Amino acid sequence: MPRLLSTVVLAAGALAGLLGASSGTRAEPPSAETIVDAFEAVLGPIRTHRPSHAKGTCAGGHFTATPEGTRLSVAPVFNGQRVATVIRFGVGVGSPAGSDTGRTTRSLSVRFETPSGDTWDMANISAPVFGSPTPEALVQGLLARRPDPVTGQPNPQAVAAFVAANPATTLQARWLAATLPPASWAATPYWGVNAFRFQGADSEVRHVRWVFEPVAGTQRLTEEQTRTLPASFLADELRQRVARAPVEFDMVLQFAGPGDDVTNPTIAWPDDRPRAVVGRLAVTEVAPGPGGACDPISFLQLDMAPGVTYSDDPTLHARTGAYAVSLSRRLQ
Ligand code: HEM
């Protein structure tokens, strides 16, 4: 191809890429406003609570890294000193009146506050995978479930068509359907799900995912308990435990192996990947009722801990803005 023509072709391709205009190019991901609008299309205006994990209880405690944590991350959180934490335990429902016994996720959100003034936020769930591979699928899945103005219910054909076209969005629901819900906020693992990059003391950067493993072990409700327990029991159960002794979780890193997808949160990495215990979280207090330090904040700030950076997972990148918009609507 003559040089001038090839330059024009390249420039046109670059422009089409920027505009997302040519077939096969990736369209712009949905904006944070579009994402939160999609939640509101399903749930109605959200002004008093979170659109996701709407039910929750504030708690507090501290985190201390292990020597292995100090080796694997240069972030101040992992320097071995005791780090104060603001914690929120949640239930993956769209209303604060949702039930604690349903086959949805439970959550553990943590804000680390280091003595030097750095903060680091994370929001983890009690399932190893997320329900959408991309922010686009999340938005389309929500819009497919918009209630019909006449019936007040989602249109089953729209939902079926969406699911058929987006099978990866069923993977979390399948895991939840096959797994009984946690018997306690203290007795379930919580996965970070998205992949991150950790810079170690040796300067090496590693792709990791993390999970908070309950030191007391995992306990699940029985089928019968899912039918007989009251809709709200998790908060009081946690208060009683913490009144006796701190509730503890080990933070465990899992390292990506060759070929592991670091961009798709609907696929767990194989169990045989190397792991390391990098710290212990102790929950030492639980709010006596609604409200508390976790309420007026959102657990995903723009700033990550120094030495911890985002992977190329598009859902991770979508979270930051969406959480900020959600918080701003809640605080209006
Ligand atoms: C496209 C990706 C995602 C979007 C757009 C999204 C959106 C949201 C929004 C808008 C909120 C409410 C935030 C607030 O008002 O403070 C929220 C909360 C939450 N999300 Fe996501 N999310 C995404 C992915 C994930 C993933 C992968 C996880 C799994 C770890 C997750 C776990 C949570 C948890 C635990 C909360 C409750 C946080 C709290 O306790 O305040 N989300 N999400």
Distance between the termini: 58 Å
Number of strand segments: 10
Top-tier CATH class:
Mainly Beta
Provide the CATH superfamily: Catalase core domain
SS class: alpha+beta
Question: Hey, roughly how much beta strand do the residues contain?
Answer: 15-25%
Order of helices and strands: HHEHEEEHHHEEEHHEEEH
Q: What is the radius of gyration? A: 21 Å
Q: How does the overall form come out from the CA principal axes?
A: globular
Number of helices: 9
Low-confidence stretches: 1-25
Number of domains: 1
CATH architecture: Beta Barrel
- Do you know the CATH topology? Catalase HpII,  Chain A, domain 1
**What level of helicity do the residues show?**
25-40%
Oligomer: single chain
Q: Main sheet?
A: 10 strands, antiparallel
Each distinct ligand: protoporphyrin IX containing FE
Mean pLDDT: 91
Secondary-structure blueprint:
Layout: H1 3-19, H2 32-43, E1 55-65, H3 67-72, E2 83-91, E3 106-113, E4 119-125, H4 135-144, H5 156-165, H6 171-177, E5 190-191, E6 196-199, E7 205-214, H7 223-228, H8 234-244, E8 247-255, E9 275-286, E10 308-310, H9 314-330
Antiparallel strand pairs: 1-2, 1-9, 2-3, 3-4, 5-7, 6-7, 6-10, 7-8, 8-9
The structure holds protoporphyrin IX containing FE (HEM).
Protoporphyrin IX containing FE binds at residues 35-36, 50-53, 56, 88, 90, 107, 109, 123-125, 130, 132, 135, 138, 192-194, 265, 298-299, 315, 318-319, 322-323, 326-327, 330.
